[in-house]
Amino acid sequence: MDLKDAIKKRQSIRAFKPDPVTRDILSGIIEDALLAPSWGNTQPWEFTIAGGDAVKRLGEELSDKNMNKIPDNPDLEMPEKWPDLCMGRYRNVGKELFETLSIGRGDKKKRDQHYENMFNFFGAPNAIYIYIDKELGVYSVLDVGIISHSISLLATDYGLGTCILAAAVRYPDIVRAHLNIPQSKNLVIGIAIGYPDWDSPYNQYKSKREDLDTLVRWADG
Ligand SMILES: Cc1cc2nc3c(=O)[nH]c(=O)nc-3n(C[C@H](O)[C@H](O)[C@H](O)COP(=O)(O)O)c2cc1C
How far is ligand 1, taken at its centre, from the CA of residue 165, in Å? Predict the structure, then answer.
């Protein structure tokens, strides 16, 4: 697939077919993604790829914790407040996604179901966890962001879908215990990966972007 096509086709996928992704394909994706740039070529990222019963058991426990309102304790602080412009966009994506799913404002049952889905990797057969040493700082987190996009684009090339999930790292101790990840690592992000269920209303939703002119200033005079 042409790079530009992959960039345009990629979208967050929130409903998956149950078919697992083969280890060959997952290895191929990560191997190519490892070509991503990083500060001084430090390559601070490490990965655990969960599948089979491991991903199911983990998703169940994460979603159980969330449903029971157990306070989370992410390794990296998650933003609670946003400047107005960002907050507006954040609210919009939630509102539009729920509209696509026909979930009304007061429909607590369906909203809860959505969050249960989210903590269950939206039913993806595989989840990629990316973590870095606890000694590392903000630029290594940036590096993880860069490689996450590479993973998502490469997955698109294989006909796969991904959803980058902060939700997946809200309870890092549970993830570490299930996946045997050392205490010395900070969990940065999880990525749900699998074959998209294109019949699901979830995947009909395509988020919007600001215009170029709103976000880009030129300084070339
Ligand atoms: C760092 C990061 C964390 C995210 N966490 C979540 C999440 O927890 N739940 C979710 O449904 N989507 C999550 N997303 C997906 C974003 O909502 C999505 O990328 C954004 O709305 C733009 O939509 P698109 O990916 O379809 O283009 C996350 C994306 C990023 C980059």
Answer: 6
Sign, CA torsion 55/59/62/68:
negative
Distance (Å, rounded) from C-alpha 137 to C-alpha 34?
19
Residue 221 pLDDT more than 90? Answer: no
How far apart are alpha carbons 1 and 155 in whole angstroms?
A: 11
Ligand 1 center from residue 153 Cα (angstroms): 14
Q: Are 161 and 155 in contact (CB under 8 A)?
A: yes
Percent of the chain predicted with pLDDT > 90 = 99
Ligand 1 centre to CA of 219 (Å) is 31
Alpha-carbon distances, residue 150 vs 4, 36, 42, 144, 156 (angstroms): 13, 7, 17, 10, 10
Q: CA dihedral defined by 22, 156, 29, 42, rounded to 10 degrees? A: -150
Pocket residues: Cβ below 6 A from ligand 1: 11-12, 93, 118, 163-167, 189, 207
Q: Which atom of ligand 1 is nearest to the CA of 93?
A: 21
Return the ∠ at Cα 151 (arms to 200 and 162), rounded to 5°. Answer: 10
The phi and psi torsions of 190 (rounded to 5 degrees) equal -120, 150
Which homologous superfamily is 3-201 in?
NADH Oxidase (3.40.109.10)
Is the pTM for the entire model greater than 0.90? yes
